[in-house]
Amino acid sequence: MGTTGLSIGQVAERTGLSVHALRFYEREGILASPVRRDPGGRRVYGEDDVEWLTLCVILRASGMPLPAIRQYTEMVRRGDGNEEERLALLRLHRERVTAQIDQLSRCLDLINHKVGVYEDIIDRGGAGHECVAPPSSENKPGRAERS
Amino acid sequence: MGTTGLSIGQVAERTGLSVHALRFYEREGILASPVRRDPGGRRVYGEDDVEWLTLCVILRASGMPLPAIRQYTEMVRRGDGNEEERLALLRLHRERVTAQIDQLSRCLDLINHKVGVYEDIIDRGGAGHECVAPPSSENKPGRAERS
DNA sequence: GTAGGATCTAGAGTCGACTCTAGGTCAAGT
DNA sequence: ACTTGACCTAGAGTCGACTCTAGATCCTAC
Question: pLDDT for A85-141, tens place per residue?
Fold first, then answer.
């Protein structure tokens, strides 16, 4: 079993991408090597394609836009010699991802805080006042919550 | 100085939302209280609106869709008595956010791994093989990108 | 009294990343 | 022979969240 040879459906299953998305990615130039076709004109993927697509899925999941993935793909297609370029792109993306994580963590802090506030309100079955004004209040009561 | 009274432009500046977005949010029912208008028909916001919008910005930044924010807004508008509901919504969102952070962290691991691989390649000035999988994944004895 | 800037409304347009449709081919199973 | 189901292409449609346009109004400054 030298050449595995997977159908688009099988690749979809393995990568989690839809068959539509796979064809779309191909049109977008997101495949390291041109897809082979069988005598009937159907796409035949290899294990390496699956690996590459798996990487793409991860890059997408971390928010890399398709144009950037295409750029990266092109570098890889051009072969050895542009490792610095690839590294730069990856580092840039890494920064974006860490920034994203940081932002989400800050949001999470606030959400946790708010959850805590509501838990308190409910625990003591009381009318707590909220930081943000509910309808009837022309309120000016101090702000509540904050750590 | 009693009632602050901010214009849409000022609110845009403070919340980071565009004036367009502010009007859009209003149409979408994303304001806890209906916006007041001055004699000329222009919107007049209060500090509480800014606080509410700031919260909305944070919820959006953490990926809460506008319909969910609208739901939450409606609960707040209905006033006291639905704290459990609000809490449930917040908890659900919190789970989504932590899931997102987890996923991003996993992506980051892989990206870091790949960055490391490229750094090695460059450091030793060599063309090398690399692997797509993260550390300690038993992978086909395959290599990677680029056929 | 007029130019400039901020604001108003309603509605159209954009962008990214798919997703779906229509209409057709192909291989296997009954 | 025929049905089924996976696959093909080209291109249209969707979705979310804005963003922008046009044409009008209003306030301040000169």
Answer: 999 999 999 999 999 999 999 999 999 999 999 999 998 876 555 555 444 333 333
CA torsion, ordered A37, A41, A43, A48, to nearest 10 deg: 0
How crowded is residue A2: how many other Cβ atoms within 10 Å of its Cβ? Answer: 4
Rounded-to-integer distance, Cα A125 and Cα B68, Å: 25
* Ramachandran category for residue B134: left, alpha or beta (phi over 0 → left; psi -120 to 50 → alpha): beta
Q: Which residues of chain B are within 8 Å of residue A76 when distances are taken between CB atoms?
A: 145-146
Instruction: Report the sign of the C-alpha dihedral through residues A129, A135, A136, A141, in that order.
Output: positive
DSSP conformational letter for B146: -
Give the separation between CA B141 and CA A99, rounded to whole angstroms.
Answer: 34
Task: Kindly report, residue by residue over B23-79, the tens digit of the pLDDT.
Answer: 999 999 999 998 999 999 999 999 999 999 999 999 999 999 999 999 999 999 998
Residues in chain B: 147
Q: What is the pTM of this model?
A: 0.84
Residues of A in contact with B32 (CB under 8 A): 132-135
Strand partners, B6: B45
**Separation of A7 CA and D6 C1' (Å):** 9
